[in-house]
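Quick log. Single chain, no ligands specified.
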Amino acid sequence: MFNLAALVGPAALATKEFTVHPQGSADGLYVRIVGRKSGLFAWLLSLLRIDSTTVFEVYQDRIVFKSANLSGATNTTIPLASVCLTASGFFKPVLYIVVAVLLFIPAAMGILAALVMMSGRSSDAALAAGCFPTILLGFCAVLVWLYFLRKTLLVSIQAHSGTLIAIAFKRSVMEGVSVEEEDAERVISLVNQLLLGQQSRPSPVPQAPVSVPPPAPRPVAVVPPPVQPRSLPAPVPPVQVAPTSRNCPSCSAVVPMDALFCETCGKRVG
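-> predicted structure:
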C-alpha cells in the first residue's frame, strides 16, 4: 500500500469535494470524493468547467468510480457484495522536511550572525550578510508548506474479479478542501461496515415454484359422422307348411293325407 501511494503520489488529485455521510443520505450515498488534476492550469480549466474530474462514490450496495478527461469518460460500478479487499494509506514527502531542517540550521546561524554584525558594524554590511540566510529561510518555509500540501491519501477497492479501484487525493488550496489521514481511514471503515452489513444479511430463501395451470383447451368443433343409409331387412323365407291333403290320382278328389283309399272312387291312394 505504501509503495502504491508513493507511486501515485505525484499524480494525486486535488480534492474538490470530500463528503462522508455516516448514516447515509436520502439517495443511499455514504461517501463522495471529487478530485481534479493538480496545478494552476487545471484549476483555471475547472473554472471553465472543462477540467478532468474523477468521482468516487460509495452507496449501500455498490461502489461507483467515474473518470473523465478531455478525450472521454469511463464509469466503473462494483457491487458491494463482490468486494474482497479494501485498503487505505498515505504518503508524506519526508524528504522536504529533511531538506528544510538541513537548510534551516545554516540559515538560522547566518541570520544570527547578521544580527551580531548589525550591533557592532554598519547596518549595510549586516543587511548584506543576512540577505542570503533570509532567502534560505524562506526556501525552508516553502519546503515545509509543500510537505503539508503534497501529503497524499489513498483509498483502494479490489473486487473478486481482480478489478482494482484506487484514488489518490490531497488537499486543494484553490478549493479550500483539507484532508487528513483520518479521512481516508474513515472512508475505509465505512466501506467495511457496509461490507459486514451485506454479509450479515440472510440469504434470500428460494421460493417454491408456483405451478401455473395449463391453459384451458380450446373448444373443438365436433363434426357428426356421416349418416349411413338404413339397410332394409332381409326378406324372411316363407315357412314351409306340411300339406294336410292330397288329390286322388284317379278322380282328382281331395283325399286326407292319412287316408288309404279315395272316398269317391275307392282307389287305393296310401
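Strands lie at 13-20, 29-37, 53-59, 62-68, 73-79, 83-91, 152-159, 164-170, 245-247, 254-256.
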